From TrEMBL:
Record domain NADP-dependent oxidoreductase: where: 30-95
Cited Pfam families: Aldo_ket_red
Name of this chain's protein: NADP-dependent oxidoreductase domain-containing protein
Gene3D superfamilies: NADP-dependent oxidoreductase domain
Organismal lineage: Bacteria, Bacillati, Actinomycetota, Actinomycetes, Micromonosporales
Transmembrane domains' residue ranges: none
InterPro entries per the UniProt record, alphabetical: NAD(P)_OxRdtase_dom_sf (IPR036812), NADP_OxRdtase_dom (IPR023210)
Source domain of life: Bacteria
Amino acid sequence: MLRACGQLGIAFVPFFSIAGEARTAGPSRAEHEEVRSVARAHGVSHAQVRLAWILQKGAHVLAIPGTGSPDHLVDNVAAGAIRLTEEDLRLLHRIDPSAS
């Protein structure tokens, strides 16, 4: 669906927490490891990796991240400058192969 929206020029606004399942249930083992690995490689937080991943899916994908403090806002803005590599994207794709 995401690809079709892009081809048709339709904006896509994902409706889920950037924290994923971790917000309520704690990170799943697979999710935690892939995101953690990419975050470590870029020297950023898990949330920043998730936001960068969403933003890198296409110009038609609009992220609306929440923020609880000025520092969190700065982190959200900084996530827009993170450029995930093809290897990062392959690794993150393992979390949810249907999300492309």
